[in-house]
């Protein structure tokens, strides 16, 4: 945007006070308007100029941390892998995505799935959408999901019931207007049987991204 | 004698009063005073209670979400980040944990939550934020993968 166009976009008082005109006088303000003090203040030039300071260029010494970081990474990964292989991580929790909701589960937990859920009582299900797995000393986060081969979360369908009766009551007082509805949702109870890590964390499959999963 | 045709203009009315009142009084059984036993008084309070519970069912979700947000803010502020930073960064990285899980972790899985906070700070430093706080977060190696 050129300077002329920019100046035209400002109001006269703005142009004057902004000092964009430098030493030129203001001619041609709107008729009937008295010139404000601010209209002339922008015409003054400063009596001093700030001194030009020569800034010394500071050079930082940037360390090449790649080797250090690689060592650190390998150390951490090997510690995690040791725990996985020996099974010394203890009780694991997993964040599982099921039927539109996320749940933080461990072994022996009960889970309620609300709505239409096809598996029948006694079925053993594998919960495949795992966002996160962790124990006392480490946590693994998926972006957004972890590989199916890595984590195994199994659950059994324990019960299929209806929820408590939810009463939907709408009343407009003194208007003889009243409506009552009743609703009970189907509840499926799942018992989490196990949460396990099956593989070492740096074991990568030959072909990635083709787990046959649907996001 | 067998009556084969129905009686004209007869209506089947009434007889419902007892059970209608029983429906209401069963809901007011735990109230105090005449509200629990007298129908014309109880009906007002029972209607109010049912109306409130209907409205509250929707409100509960909003209230819980606000509570979770407060808990995540509290946990992240303790660790030197903020709620907004965590939300933006986790979304950026691709970690899809929701409010319910994050507030759960902030209380019951503190080490995991601390890991997420450090991750947030490291990612922000990579982006160029947090430069006034000093050098990058120690103990976090991203290898450019974030």
Automatic annotation (TrEMBL), chain B:
GO cellular component: ribonucleoprotein complex; ribosome
Alphabetic keyword roster: Ribonucleoprotein, Ribosomal protein
Top-level taxon of the source organism: Eukaryota
GO MF annotation terms: rRNA binding; structural constituent of ribosome
InterPro entries membership: Ribosomal_bL20, Ribosomal_protein_bL20_C
BP GO terms, sorted: translation
Keyword presence, Ribonucleoprotein: yes
UniProt KW Ribonucleoprotein keyword: yes
Family of the protein in this entry: Belongs to the bacterial ribosomal protein bL20 family.
NCBIfam families: rplT_bact
Name the UniProt record assigns to this protein: 39S ribosomal protein L20, mitochondrial
The organism of origin for this protein: Penaeus vannamei (Whiteleg shrimp)
